[in-house]
Amino acid sequence: ALWLLIYAFWAWWVCHSPPAPPSHLQDNILFWIGSNYFKLDMYDDAIAQFQSVIETYPRGNKVHDSRFMLGVSYFKKGDRGRALDILEAALKTNPPGEVRDKIQKQLMEIK
Asked: What's the pTM?
């Protein structure tokens, strides 16, 4: 009887749960979750989200922004050395001009 109740709940959940977001937006979702953690000064959580974008979606449209925000998050967290390493490595990945400018400006601020 209990298994029938569990099965009924599972069947209801499958039918009523929201669909997964489209795959082409999943990196954007992780990036914006990380950005919101950053705005809340929750740097460890932001770092986890940006790192996830970089590792899971290395060719996604948010990978360069995630590298930038990863570096800024480490800087805000107080890890200047790690921030410098990440931002300098990010410049070597040939980011778009707008992101490149943000990285260079941040590097000047940190140094």
From this structure: 0.83
